[in-house]
Design goal:
heterodimer; A: six-stranded mixed beta sheet; 9 strands; B: alpha/beta; Peroxisomal Thiolase, Chain A, domain 1; nine-stranded mixed beta sheet; 12 helices; 12 strands; globular; binds zinc ion
């Protein structure tokens, strides 16, 4: 029986009931980025602090990926490909992050809606392990 | 930072290997044909060329063209800046002349691509992006095009009809242009019923990768009279890369504290360096990988206000007979995109339009000044301003 493995170490908090993306914050200019890198993409500072980013944010823009992305590098399902949502989510830290969305129905997505980070199985590897990745899901507001 | 500010550089010849699908012709062969056409147009030969810059994604060392042009010992350097390559080739050729290294130079873009969306390949290493990003299917350029226009439509009230009008115009221009790849006009219905690629963009809102080459001959303006090609002057050219506060192609994150994008930065610098304003531009070729970017780039370059495109395009302002003829040769939509060559196709078109010899798609009024603009991964842009 396979186990669950994150698609990349230190990309998000794992394991976690309330997952968060792991990004960077620049002590010089206070700008955030994702994923964590060793320099600040904004002010070119060469020292950044690792931070856990807010789980919730607002949908800044979105689209639906209606065709199979080029393989490689795409490792997701090809034969039974289902369109998936992609978006940018504006987090309270003042950073906008790109992510897959759990929703792929255009009528259910609108700019400004509240979104929350979730972890979900992306694919099964050769050993039968579930590869876990992140996505943002709409929050039911009423 | 400014690279130009006077009329010291002239373009005296342009050449094109028409873009399209050319299965039996190599990119190098196309580059050689475009170079020879540009030299014929200028009225000079390969032995007159003292410096060259060449751009290609698909050809590792395009300086091997010298085998078919002549082993004259001329220094030919390769540059590649994604979709922004062409403009930067022109700038660097001009700068080599300004630096006193040469009086006459050539720039050549050449490329040949497989069908379909561009892929990073197995390893993401050459993109600077993480492997997981490619694995989960985020390294797909149409997603970016779609998401940027989606936000823009929301913010500035651009309608889907404006997207389609822009595509209709592109294919109309392509129908007129003998050198275009797509030579059939498409109706709004045909475009609107084409397959949805990435919402809100449909198949006929996009360009396709294609094959082709383009070249330009550049010289010191004070010696341009020695050659038969009618000179067009390079008034300004600027190449920039992005800042952190703009949405750009394949960005894992960006700052919500908005900064201007690369296209706007390049255009502002070019206008400042040329000492003219957007109101002086009579014709424009801008990066139209898909219709959304033609619409947004017009405002980012400063040629209209954000949101104004809705009314302008409905009034036909960007058509051949409009106030601001845009992508008059059919642009990327009707020509496709051989990446390394695309920017010099724009230069080819502006030069020929300013000379009044573009052909059936010639703008039927006096044109004095034109602008070219390219934009590409990872957020870089080049703007040039050309005048009679
Ligand atoms: Zn910083």
């Amino acid at each position: 029986m396979g186990k669950q493995i994150p698609i990349k170490e230190d990309l998000f908090t794992w394991p976690s009931a309330a997952p968060q993306l792991i990004g960077g914050r620049c002590p010089e200019c206070s700008e955030f980025h994702f994923p964590l890198q060793q320099n600040c993409p904004s002010c070119a500072g060469r020292k950044v602090d690792s931070v856990e980013l807010s789980r919730r944010g607002k949908l800044w823009t979105w689209t639906i990926q209606n065709f199979v992305p080029p393989v490689p590098p795409y490792t997701g399902e090809v034969k039974s490909f289902k369109p998936f949502g992609v978006g940018y989510i504006e987090l309270p830290e003042g950073v906008v992050v790109e992510s897959r969305l759990t929703v792929s129905d255009a009528s259910k997505l609108h700019i400004g809606m509240d979104m929350e980070l979730v972890l979900e199985p992306f694919r099964i590897d050769e050993q039968g392990n579930e590869i876990i990745s992140f996505a943002f899901a709409p929050i039911a507001t009423y | 930072m400014a690279t130009t500010n006077s009329n010291d550089i002239a373009i005296i010849g342009v050449g094109l290997y028409p873009f399209g699908r050319h299965h039996d012709v190599s990119a190098i062969q196309m580059g050689v044909v475009a170079a020879n056409k540009a030299m014929d147009d200028a009225g000079l030969g390969w032995r007159d060329i003292q410096v060259g810059y060449v751009g290609s994604l698909s050809v590792m060392m395009p300086e091997t063209m010298t085998k078919f042009l002549g082993y004259t010992g001329v220094p030919i350097s390769k540059m590649f800046n994604g979709c922004a390559t062409g403009g930067n080739l022109l700038l660097n050729t001009a700068n080599a002349i300004r630096a006193g290294r040469a009086d006459i130079g050539i720039c050549i873009g050449l490329d040949k691509h497989p069908k379909g969306a561009f892929s990073a390949g197995e390893s993401m290493d050459s993109t600077g992006l993480p492997q997981w990003y490619g694995e989960v299917g985020l390294t797909v350029n149409p997603q970016f095009f779609a998401m940027k226009i989606q936000r823009y439509m929301h913010e500035y009230g651009i309608s889907p009809a404006t997207l389609t009008r822009t595509a209709v115009k592109a294919f109309q221009n392509g129908e007129l242009n003998p050198a275009a790849w797509r030579r059939s006009a498409l109706s709004a219905d045909e475009i609107d019923s084409s397959q949805m690629v990435c919402d809100p963009l449909r198949k006929y809102h996009f360009c396709s990768p294609s094959d082709g080459a383009a070249a330009a001959i550049v010289c010191r303006a004070d010696i341009a009279h020695r050659f038969s090609g009618t000179p067009i002057f390079l008034r300004a050219g600027e190449f920039v890369t992005r800042q952190y506060g703009s949405i750009d192609v394949q960005a894992t994150s960006f700052s919500a504290r908005a900064t201007i994008g690369a296209s706007e930065a390049a255009a502002r610098a070019a206008f400042e360096s040329a000492g003219i304003g957007p109101e002086d531009i009579d014709i424009v070729q801008c990066q139209d990988t898909e219709v959304g970017h033609e619409i947004m780039h017009l405002a980012e370059i400063g040629l209209c206000k954000h949101g104004e495109q809705e009314a302008l395009i409905a009034d036909g302002a960007t058509s051949l007979s409009g106030r601001l003829p845009t992508n008059t040769d059919g642009g990327l939509l009707a020509n496709g995109e051989p990446i390394g060559a695309s920017g010099l196709r724009q230069v080819h078109e502006i030069v020929r339009q300013l000379r009044g010899v573009a052909g059936p798609h010639q703008v039927q009024r006096e044109l004095k000044t034109g602008l070219t603009h390219v934009y590409g991964f990872p957020g870089s842009s080049c703007v040039t301003i050309l005048s009679k």
